[in-house]
User: Fold these one by one.
Assistant:
Number 1:
Amino acid sequence: MVIFLLFLLSMNDENQLKISKSIFLIPMFYIVIIWFIYWIEIQYGFNFNKFGVYPRTLEGFRGVFLTHFIHSNTNHVFNNSIPLFVLLSSLFYFYKDVAYKVLIFGGLLTGFLTWLFARESFHIGASGIVYLLFSFVFFSGIIKKHYRLVALSLIIIFLYGSMIWYVLPIKEGMSWEGHLSGFVTGFFFAFIKRNKGIVKKEHEFSRTEFDLLFDDSGNFSPPEIVENKENEKRVEE
């Protein structure tokens, strides 16, 4: 489905947007990594939860770098995998100029904000990245006012709009703080990167012969007609 949507949004866009296999490499690689880490936990009986974010402690600060790769159970990692693939593909396709910065620095800032104000508990999962990407893709399209990006924003809100409720403490055992951190970070990056990548082009009007009849102030000022002196010559017999 995501490939079909990218194809529709890229049609007739003057080659600015081209679908290639490379835009899916990072999403697939990230998903393989989180599933592999979870498999190691199950296979060898490890528990990596302690490597998540534990707010306002020095040991818990390591979770800022590790939390996005750790999940509590199969449903947790599965529920994050699909939106991660869709949103990461959208990021690297439509915002390839800033994609790595948004993903890396945005992920770190999301983890840091979670460490800074979240309740005292281990916060794990790639949900912060999901909310980061959701927020960035949605707000970037609105801020840039590029019609294809606005269309993408509407598609994203249609697919994942219900996620917005989970930035509030409405479900027990869910890190709403991590969701909120990702959402705020995504908006922040959408704003500071608003002039990067695809932007709306201002329409330029070309001057016509009719426009030449007026000066820069809009006053009627037709060009002077220079008579051809050669036509005025009389041939004397």
Number 2:
Amino acid sequence: METNRPRTHLTRRGILKGAALAALPYALLPGPQAAAQTAVDYPAGEWQPANSGNYTASSRPTAYTIDRVIIHVTQETYTDTLGIFRNPEKQVSAHYLVRSADGHVAQCVREADVAWHAGNWSYNTRSIGIEHEGWVDEPAYFTDALYEQSARLTAAVCDKYGIPKDREHVIGHFEVPGTDHTDPGVHWDWIRYLRLVNFS
């Protein structure tokens, strides 16, 4: 199909410029790949951003004190949870998501921002929300890797903000006032988890 665009002629300079661009690693070019290079708050994590309509931009801990970690279970797969966080119609997010199979950590919201995970504004402003892939009634999702990597993440968050590593400050979603959620559920091993948090 022909267009009315003027024809371009290749010049030696144009060829060399094209060759130079072709030699650049893709990661150095602008575009979607550049966004994936955003630095994370937790060095072992991977940046997988939630939609900006699913959290509140803030400047914590200056704007709000961070004094809690809230443990969640997704009731979805890892991939589907990332999709939910990216969908502005869902109005939900968490700071982190931990994959069941290998404990891989994705950061979806900056710690300075207020993720919408607790269903209680006061608790959202004061906490870091950590989602875990799985279902509350399927304990097989709570793998050794998930417990170990999540505990390292929680320990790092507690160390950064001076949060005591105990059950008063590392809580389940079910403990948030006003919630109707039951996660992380009866199969979550709190004794094991807090032991790992304290020795990470």
Number 3:
Amino acid sequence: MTIGFVPETSSATTSPASRTLEPAEWTAIGIPLLASPREVVKDLHTRHLPSPSTAVIAVYDPDGRIRASASFAGRSGVVDGWERRNALLSHLRHVIPHDLRLRTPVRTAVLMICRDGVPGWTAEDGAWMWGLRDACTLHGLRCGSYVTLTGDGWHVIGENRAGRTPNANSWSRARTDQAPAVASGTPQTLRRVSAR
């Protein structure tokens, strides 16, 4: 019997560079189109008031109704989908049970990233897209749309659908205009998790 080390091969390891998706790869997956992207973006923005560097993950029933959503701060500069996947999976587990018992997924997860910078695709977006696809597989969900929210407005990557409002700067105006008050008159902390 021989004891030793097996040299690593490219198939044995996965490099961080491969844990990303480009827009063409994303489109080839066959992501279901949003029936009304403007309404989805407005609803998620109203629920979570995301500021730049915030991710909003939402799960929708087959009839298009939102079942659960969560928002959280995402570190900027991360281009490895593995880390993005782990963050998304952690938040999905907190807001909704998995659907792994179903033979085919029926609920759809949509991810909206509020960030500074250009409205088009970036390497960080590629990591988020890879992470969303993998998190959906591990949670028994259909992988849905990936939306960026920048200073120029919102943009559904891979669908070429976009709008000017809301945008990455809308959160500050909305917080000023709509901060709920408690009995003492002080502003109430906004919830970052929404579930029905």
Number 4:
Amino acid sequence: MAKEKNSYSLNSKVVSDTTHELLHQRGVTIPEIAELVLFLQKKYYPALTMEECVHNVEMVLSKREVQNAVLTGIQLDMLAEEGKLLSPLQEMLVNDEGLYGVDEILAFSIVNVYGSIGFTNYGYVDKLKPGILERLNDKSTGQVHTFLDDIVGAVAAAASSRIAHRKQAEREVDSSDLNAESDPLNNGISPE
């Protein structure tokens, strides 16, 4: 009789909870990421609130692809901190080597979830390093955040993109409502 294979089953709640727990363990809060979102979008949407930013960060973090990137990046940072990677990767991560771009590539997998507009948002915060990104880039703490700083920037950029897409959709709905009301052939009936 053939040996029965154990069936692999991943619990989505465990993945989500672990993602949030690892962010917390590494000193990253949802409101800090939301502050980056507000920084990126306030100029375009002056009425944007922190609550909206927090909601959009949470929605980005609810995506499995994003959770996978967060789990992978944080664990690589932790392994580098513990000296458990092989050389030269160990030294590249500890020193956040300038020519090592895999951290940005992982971040792109997050940014890409909400379309290409996120790339410009990500590039902007990655260059400026505002808020929590400045702290995560502080090499004097002894912690390795080679992946985490890019992950946090990418989550903020994706949340910003999510907001931009939704605000555009709201404008289009509002615009179509106005057009329907002013259309004499419409007879006051607006499309649903």
